[in-house]
């Protein structure tokens, strides 16, 4: 089970977001929630989207305090220090966070949500791929499960197409708040839209990363990826191009023998 209560309180105290002055600003719970440290992956879901029952289908059965959580999400007031010390409030807050997260996972694959996530992606708000050969490629948040409290959020690199653990401050975010399909829908829609844009924008859809070729003093290593005698194995560990390698070795052997004969004749 993922637990967020203590984490939220620490973050709020650190940024002084629980002060009475902040609660009187009237920015609303959604803005307050998305502004918390560690919540940089979130975008503010439109209230009209949240109020539409069609977008809430199947969520009522998954959230314990659904009605109270919905009321909290749509509230125009920010929690104050007294609220955050109330255990009953924190229980409803957990439900509100789960409900908002599940709505958020649906909103970010809507046209409006995709446009908002595109802005964050272009700014590098989600971070960069830790793989050296990806050259600081912008990444996207992804969940590995649609179920709550199953797995924390991960990040997906569209260049190497691999999944990584995000930075420390995003580690307590539930992966279900982003869903398992977002990066692929996002990149598919972005690729379609780019067909109507000028060529300079095609860099948003990265090509595959260059292969790392191991070398010793500039020479490629026998049997390693990228070498002349690269070995490729099947799922049983057997080389699939054994005959090709044998032919290459025979040619090299003949070539070496010919060179030796020429040297002897000289």
UniProtKB/TrEMBL annotation:
SMART domains: CK_II_beta. Keywords: Kinase, Transferase. Belongs to the casein kinase 2 subunit beta family. It comes from Stylonychia lemnae. This is Casein kinase II subunit beta. SUPFAM superfamilies: Casein kinase II beta subunit. Pfam families: CK_II_beta. GO terms for cellular component: cytoplasm; protein kinase CK2 complex. GO terms for molecular function: kinase activity; protein kinase regulator activity. Gene3D superfamilies: 2.20.25.20, protein kinase ck2 holoenzyme, chain C, domain 1. The gene is Contig8198.g8747. It comes from the Eukaryota. Tetramer of two alpha and two beta subunits.
